[in-house]
Amino acid sequence: MTTVNAESRDSAREAAVKVVSARSMVIDGAEVVLTDELRHSLHELFQHTADGEGVEIVARAEYLSTQQAAEILRISRPTLVRMLDDGLIPYERRRSHRRISRQALDDYLEAEKTQRARALEDLADTFDPTVEEQPVATR
């Protein structure tokens, strides 16, 4: 990974601010229209560079193998297969292989995040500051 020099960081910081409201940009004299998605991607790229972070661009596949999806979820492939069989994540079969759409995986991750946040809020609601803490006997 390369280090980002001060001049690149300054340029990236300026570009990050400008690209947010830009509708187009000029490259080699030709105007290129920026979609919301492209504008967002460029802003992230510039922001990470401005922060001195190295950036790596990787294409996202529309459909993932079970191994790829398991790696994204940080679980084993057999665990993912059980989740697929239990209907927790929708998938398609292509011949004898399961394929998970990136959108389905993103939806699952977002639902899990929401569920964790809700559980944490529920746990926080059980806290009663008027109750004095006592040691809990475990034996």
Concise account of the structure shown:
The protein has 139 residues and is α+β, with helices and mostly antiparallel strands. Helix content is 50%, strand content 13%.
Characterization of the model:
The chain is of the alpha+beta class. The chain folds into two domains: 6-50, no CATH class; 63-125, Multidrug-efflux Transporter Regulator, Chain: A, Domain 2 (Orthogonal Bundle), CATH 1.10.1660. Helix content is 50%, strand content 13%. It contains five helices and five strands; from the N terminus they run H-E-E-H-E-H-H-E-E-H. The chain is flat and about 75 Å long. The chain starts with 5 loop residues before the first helix and ends in a 14-residue tail after the last helix. This is Excisionase family DNA binding protein.
Order of helices and strands: HEEHEHHEEH
* Number of individual domains: 2
CATH-defined fold name of the largest domain: Multidrug-efflux Transporter Regulator, Chain: A, Domain 2
Terminal Cα span: 53 Å
Query: What is the averaged pLDDT score?
Result: 90
Q: Specify the CATH architecture of the largest domain.
A: Orthogonal Bundle
Number of helix segments?
A: 5
Strand content: 5-15%
- Fraction of residues in helix: 40-55%
Strand order of the largest sheet: 3-5-4
* Major sheet description: 3 strands, antiparallel
Provide the gyration radius in Å.
Answer: 23 Å
CATH class of the largest domain: Mainly Alpha
Outline type: flat
Number of strands: 5
Q: Structural class, please?
A: alpha+beta
pLDDT < 50 stretches: none
